Structures are given as structure tokens and as C-alpha cells.
Automatic annotation (TrEMBL):
<feature type="transmembrane region" description="Helical">
    <location>
        <begin position="41"/>
        <end position="58"/>
    </location>
</feature>
<dbReference type="InterPro" id="IPR011701">
    <property type="entry name" value="MFS"/>
</dbReference>
<dbReference type="InterPro" id="IPR020846">
    <property type="entry name" value="MFS_dom"/>
</dbReference>
<feature type="transmembrane region" description="Helical">
    <location>
        <begin position="79"/>
        <end position="101"/>
    </location>
</feature>
<keyword id="KW-0812">Transmembrane</keyword>
<dbReference type="InterPro" id="IPR036259">
    <property type="entry name" value="MFS_trans_sf"/>
</dbReference>
<keyword id="KW-0472">Membrane</keyword>
<dbReference type="GO" id="GO:0022857">
    <property type="term" value="F:transmembrane transporter activity"/>
</dbReference>
<feature type="transmembrane region" description="Helical">
    <location>
        <begin position="173"/>
        <end position="194"/>
    </location>
</feature>
<dbReference type="Pfam" id="PF07690">
    <property type="entry name" value="MFS_1"/>
</dbReference>
<feature type="transmembrane region" description="Helical">
    <location>
        <begin position="149"/>
        <end position="167"/>
    </location>
</feature>
<protein>
    <submittedName>
        <fullName>MFS transporter</fullName>
    </submittedName>
</protein>
<dbReference type="GO" id="GO:0005886">
    <property type="term" value="C:plasma membrane"/>
</dbReference>
<keyword id="KW-1133">Transmembrane helix</keyword>
<keyword id="KW-0813">Transport</keyword>
<keyword id="KW-1003">Cell membrane</keyword>
<feature type="transmembrane region" description="Helical">
    <location>
        <begin position="107"/>
        <end position="128"/>
    </location>
</feature>
Amino acid sequence: MKFAFLKLNQVILVIIFAQFIFTMAVSLSAPLFAIFVVRDIGAAAAAVGFASAVYWAMKSILQLPIARYLDKNHGEIDDYYSLLAGITITMTGVFLFYFAAELWHIFAIQALIAIGDAFAIPPLYAIFTRHIDSGAEGFEWALQSSFSFGAGGAIGGVLSGILVGLVGIRPLFLVNGTLMLVGLIVLVFLRPYIRPKVPSPAQRVFIEQKRV
């Protein structure tokens, strides 16, 4: 029996592996975030919910116009740079959690991470969708779910439980950010497979008219 994943194209493999690293990174600190806010920052438990709301509200609002803008530009080079920029912003926010001392720091960092994810997530899924292998759509989406999210989340959760007893909660954000940097480096290998920007249909008509 042949292993189907050996037939995956390079773009799908790179994205799935990068998402595995990102999920593992997030899973290091996510289970302990509420404890961090209450114990280390000294905020009320309700602040955890408000911090979550700040992230989800801002990300949900911003990613729609960003996705629409990226869809209007033909080619993938704009998607690619939006992806890298977004992950860089998110990674910066994760590192900043290590230095957070006040509740407003938490809200500000959550907003920063939301901005980063708003720039990163739409192009990531757009590139994945464009390069998915014909006839293997279900398997490749399932592989992303099982390996990138399932295995990444499980391993990250186990490491979180082990490391928190060794180094505490705050240093986990440094490990989280470092893993995100590794994932960002992995995504650099997408560059040779990114489709260049091409003129839109309207622009092509205009160019042809000028030639005539």
C-alpha cells in the first residue's frame, strides 16, 4: 500500500508542516493563558474573556477587507508577503507576552496578534486552496486537520504540561515565539512555488488596446 502523503505537492507539504509548528507553538501557552492573566498579571477572571473578545472581534473585522483586497490582486505574490508579514506581527505579539505586566498590555498584545492573524490566515488558506491536488481534496484537508491541528495541538499540550512545571508560564511565551519563527522560516520555502502577479482581465484588454 502506497502512502498518499508521498504524492502531495510541495506547497501542500510546506503549509501542512508549517501549520503543525504554529499549532504546537500556540498549544504551549493557550491552555495556561487564563492562569497567566489571573496569577501573573493579577487581573480578575473576567478579564480573560474580554481579552479573548478583543482578539476575535478585531481579527474577524479586519480579515474580511484584507481577504477581499488580496482576492482582487491576481497572482499569489501579494498573498505570500501578507502571510509572512502577518506571522511576523503575530510572533512579535507572542514574544511581548513575556514582558507584559499590566492588564492593558494583555489587551494591546491581543489586538496586535489579531492584526497579524488577519493578515496571515486568509492568504494561507487561499494558497492552500489553489494548490490542493485534484482528486485528493478530502484527504489533504483531513491531513491538515489531523496532522497540523490534531498532532500539533496534542504535542503542544503535552509539552505545555511538562514545561510549565520546569520553567513556569511566562517563559513558555518565548518558546512559543521561537517555534513561530521556525514556522516562518519553513514558509520561506514556498517562494519558488508562488505564482507571480499577472494583469487582471481588464488590464490585459487595456494593454492589448494600447498595442493596437
